[in-house]
Structures are given as C-alpha cells and as structure tokens.
Amino acid sequence: MKKWLLLILAMIMLGAQLAAAVTNVAILPLKRLDRSSEYIRKLLTVRDLALTFEKNDKYTLKDMKETEKLFKESDFTDVDDLQVEEMTQIAKMMNVDILIMGNISAKNQQSFIVSMRLYSSRSNELKQISFEVGKEKNGRLKVLKEKFMVELNAFVSIETDKIYNIAINYYSAENYPEAAQNLKLVLTLNPDNMEAQYYLGATYLKQQKYTEAINALNIVLAKDANNLQALSTLADVYDATKDNANKMLVLEKVAAIDADEEMWFSLGNLYAEANNVPKAISSLQNAIKLNPEFDKAYYRLAFLLYDEQRFGDALEYLEYAYNKYPDNDIIAKRLAISYQRSGRINEAITKYESVIQNNPTNAQAYLNVVGLYRTMAADATDPKIAAEYYKKAINSMEALKKNTPDNGLVYLNLSSIYLAQKMYNEAETNANLATQKDGTMYQPFIILAAIQQIRGSEKYNQFSDLEKKASKAVGKQATSLGKERDAARNGANAMFRKADELLRSAKSRTNDNEVINDINKKLADVASLISKSASY
Q: pLDDT per residue over 292-324, tens digit each?
C-alpha cells in the first residue's frame, strides 16, 4: 500500500512539473529600419507571431498590445539600444522568462530580414538570430515555424543545459539549497530531464528531506524502472530512515539488474539478521546462480540451512564447502550430522566408496568417506563395530597416502583416528608428519596439544599418588618418594606448558572466530593446569 501511495505521489509531482513547464515570452515592439518594412512589421505583430506561438504549448506569448503599452510606459525607447541590465529590468516588470527584441529591414521588394535578440531572465543568456521572410503568408508562417521557433527552442535548450551545469557545480560544492533551486528550474524548463530529476532526489537526500527525495527518485523510476543510479540512491534514503524492509526490496532490484553476486550475498546476510530466512536463502541461492564458485555464499547458505535443521537441503552446500575446506572441522562435523539426521549416511558412504573404486586417485572422495567412517565409529555403541569403522578409515587413508604421500590431510586424519582410539604415540607421529607436510594447518597442533595435556594429566595423577605415599613414609623412603613426586609434578607442568605453546601455534594459523574461541577455552583450561602443577 505504501509503495502505491509513493508511486501516486511521484506521478502527481510529474504532472505538476509538466503543467509548470511553460516558458513565458514577451516580444517588444519590432523596429522597422525602413518604410517598406512597415507592412511586414504589422503582419508579424498583429497576427503571425501570435499564430506561431499558439501552436506551441511550451510557450505562452504575452499579449503584444499589452507588451507594447508597458514598454511605452517605461523609460526605454529604442529596443536596439537595450543593455542586459535593462533587459533584466523589463523582463521582471513584464514577468516573463524570455524577452525578444528585434528589427526589420527590406532586402528587396519581396524579401525582408528580421534580426532578433533573445534574452533569458533565468540565465542571463543573450543570443542574436536573423531570418528572412517574404510577403506570402504561408511561406512566412513556415519560416517562423522552421527557423524562428527552432532557434528559440535551441536557445531555451542551451539555457537549460547552462542552468543544469550550474546546479551540478553547486551540488559538487555541497551548496545544496542553490543546487535544488536550479534543478527545479531545469525541470520547469524540461520535465523530461531525468538526470536533473535524479540529482534533485540526491540533493534532497543530502538535505535530509527524505520524503521529497523518495518522491523525486520515484519520478525517475516511473520513467526508467531499471535506473541503477536512482535505485541505489533510493536505497540510501531508506537506509537513512531506517526503513530496512524497503531498502532490501530496492537492493534486490539493484542486485537483479546489475547481476551482482556480492550484493545478493550481502542481502542474504541482511535478511538472515532480520530473521527473514526464506528471503535469506533465496538471496544466497541467487548469488550462487550468478557465480557457481562463490565459496563464501555456499559456506553461508550451508550453515543457514543447517541452523534451520534443514539437513537434507544443507547437504549440497555443505559438501561443496567441505570439498573446498576439507581441513575445517566445523564443516566436516556439520556435514556428517546432516547426513546422519537426514538418514543418508550409508547412502553417502556407498557413493564415495563407488567413486574411489572407479577412480582410486580421487583424494576428495577418500577424505569424505573417512569423515563418514569416523562419524559411524563415534556413534557406534558396540566397540567392535566402532573398531571396524576406524579400521576402514585407517585403511582408506593408508591407500590415499600411497597416491599422495605429501598430502598433509592424510596424516591429519590418521592422527585424529588414532587419537579417538587413544593410540597416542601413533596420533603424535602422524600429527608431527602433518605439520611437516603442511605447516599452515592448525589442527595438528591442537591434536599435539591434546596429547601433551593427556600425558600431563597422567603425570599429575602420578604426582598426587606419590604425594600421598610420601606424606606417610619416613627416612630414606620418604626422601626417595619426595624426589619421584617432584619429578612427576615438574614433568606434568612441562607437558602442560608444551600444550599451551602448541595451542598458541594453532591459534596463529587460523582466522576462524569459532575455532579461535574454542582454542581460547582450551588455553584457559591449560592455564589452570599449569598453575595447579607449579612448584610450591
């Protein structure tokens, strides 16, 4: 409803401009330079010029008798002697926009030269024109139409361009009141000048006249619905007025016209923030349609659908994101959960196993199926079934290692699998190999830190037991147990400090906020253990 009201207002304003787009003209008494020109002077004054103007609705000609009367009552006598300042005074007195002065002279018995000066009170422009007329009526009217009126139209057009340029200069100089005044004058002269109409809307925005800005820009859009400049500025108006609903509707149109995937991506985020999930999803899908390799749109849409628990719909986008970022634990975990929640995990395993069988060098298929094996192992309640899936995962990674021995992800996955089975030595060996193959990954350092923390905790437990025994012992036994106790405590503390160092190494290798938050929590836990195991 609001949109229709704004459109109606825009059309009313356009109609008002059209109604106002009339130039008022006064022709001062024409001066004859010889007696033989009187006949033509009289015809032009009494009939021809009035007829010519009557056929053109862009102008209103002031009654020539009244004009002659007012001129005679003024202090001026000779039209040829008038200076610009005097022309300005006369135009103001007669309340006209264009003042025309001229004289007539005989060329021969049949032809006469009409020389005129055209003066604009709006721009102070002055132009000299001349044309030739004859005694024959139709020929004379044709000359007035095709020569005189064409010259007058060109003069007004040049005047309009000059005023427009003045307005733009005012706009550039941030003199918005003068810019608006001149732009409105341009539109009075030429309501079809949509550039002036646009800048009037932009000027109103600068002046914080938001209603006027919306109306002015909607006039442009009524003429050209796909005007990107007007649409973008209209979005800025809605942004300034906190009208997010209309802002996003306008930006949707901009994104569609401009085929801008980044704009669609931004809209997706805006709609998500506004809890308009259907619009957010469609916006992100539009971004992907425009750029099928737009990684962050896949990532954002995958997580949005996952958060909405639309696990089946999320799979396509999570798979893409996982293939692009196979070392991202969050994506891998959500992909596995989506397969699980949508009841398709066995289907996915079968698919990837088939891909591997047909193409044993497809590294991504190995990584995907291993992720699913690990999920099945983690969810299994029967230890034998869990061990079977872990074995499948290890075998798959060993097979991939033969094809790509320098792939750091192979060793990372092996390390994770061994860690899950509490095979810490194997996990540590493969994590170290992962860092050697690819020093940019953060995950191996987290695994190594976890192993150090586990071993440190075991040492600390030894320390606790030894402390109890030492407190009850006496003599040499007490001394010996005390040394063992201190060695255990110091060993635990050293391992906790090593865990801290490794976690900081992991943190330095990622920009993912969720991962950083998780690492910070681990650092806080380790800090507590370091403090707890410190020497007395």
A: 999 999 999 999 999 999 999 999 999 898 888
